[in-house]
Amino acid sequence: MAEHIPAAALRRKPSMAQVDMLKYRKSFDLFDHQKNGTILVADFREASEKLGYRLTTGQVQKILKANKLDESNNIHFIQFIELLPKNSAQISDDEHRMAELREKFQRYDQDGQGCIRLSEASWALQMELDVAPSTALRLLNQFVRMDYNQFCEFYEKIQQKKLEIYETFGKYDEDQDGFISVDEAHKVLSKEFGFSEERSRTMVRKFDLNGDGMVSYIEFTEFYLAVEERKTRVKEMFRKFDLEGEGSVSFEQAQNVLENMLGFSSEKCRRTIEDYDKDKDGKIDYEEFAEFYTMMEQERDHLVEKFSRHEMDDQGRISLQDLKSMMQEEGCAQSSVDQITQDYDADSKINFEEFKRLLNFY
């Protein structure tokens, strides 16, 4: 079983084994004019600027003096690492952090215009959070552009999100094997949203890119963001239905939603609300609403799927005979099926709004 790394470890300054050495090598090689694996001491300050550092003349002199270097010396790559990113004696932690921000800004400001455009911000999110281009653009809703100061705030939020994702992954990954199984996902999704096991399985399958039946840490970011977006949607719907702002949806409002959204009869509304009103106070609070809303979505999806099975006319209507067949499949009493025959002409056409009310009313 993979060793569990505490989330707090992410806050510690990373070792060189954890840092992307490629960027240091790339900056170093730009000044290796002789192609012999060294740079001139005279080029050290300019090389550091490529990595986001803004060292004063005094700092450079102190660094060189502490390492017994002068203008006649060359610096090899390992020594360059010791002098710059590993240097905590002459360069403070704040300076290292600022250098990282400047380097990131320079990297993502691809056209060197001094601001981050939408395409560049999208690329930044894809690189930093391992998300798909479509997800990055969705997260950047209403984005225009960022200057350096705005980028610093943006990047800080990305790092916070990384830590949040890591800690949440640990919540799902109960056995700490580095993967989220269907059972592990279902425990959380069932508690958060009232998902059925099949719906949890479907969600895992959606983000299981390599098809091994589990979600790895790399795959988890997209999974996590989808869950967070769902939480936001549930909260928005709850606020919409909580008309009085009392932290609950009244029986009357819940009934109104079920009637309009799903075409439930008054009796079916009553039974359904009672099922989800766990504490029997006659209202649906937020915890109860998460499951209630999931049920409504599932029921609507079920209705849409059934309706779309049948051939529709150019106005999106199905035949009365198709409706009667579906009612029989759903186990409706024959008396209910017969009632429709009396209420509608034999050649009647049924649209979706009529369909959902008829199917749920009888």
From TrEMBL:
Q: What Pfam families does the entry give?
A: EF-hand_7, EF-hand_8
- List the molecular function annotations (GO) for this entry: calcium ion binding
| Keyword annotations of the record | Calcium, Repeat
InterPro entries associated with the record: Centrin_CML-like, EF-hand-dom_pair, EF_Hand_1_Ca_BS, EF_hand_dom
Q: Membrane-spanning residues where?
A: none
For the EF-hand domain, which residue ranges apply? 19-54, 96-131, 195-230, 264-299
Q: What PANTHER family does the database record attribute to this sequence?
A: CALCIUM BINDING PROTEIN
* Listed name of the protein: EF-hand domain-containing protein
Q: What is the lineage of its organism?
A: Eukaryota, Metazoa, Spiralia, Lophotrochozoa, Annelida
